[in-house]
Amino acid sequence: MSKNLLVLALGIFFCLQTHAARTVSKRLHPDHAKVDIDMEGFTTAEENTIERALDFLSYRLSDIRRENLRSTSKYELCVAKYSTKDWREWDAKLTDSQNKGNNAYWTYNDVRLALLDHALTGLEIKIKAIYEENKVWGRAFVGNYPKASMVPDLVIKLNRYNLAKNLKREDAWGGTIFHEFLHRVGYSHPTGYPGSLIKEAGLCVTRKFAMKPVKKSTMGIRRPAILDDPMYEIED
Ligand SMILES: [Zn+2]
Question: Residues 74-87: what's their mean pLDDT?
Answer without folding.
Answer: 88
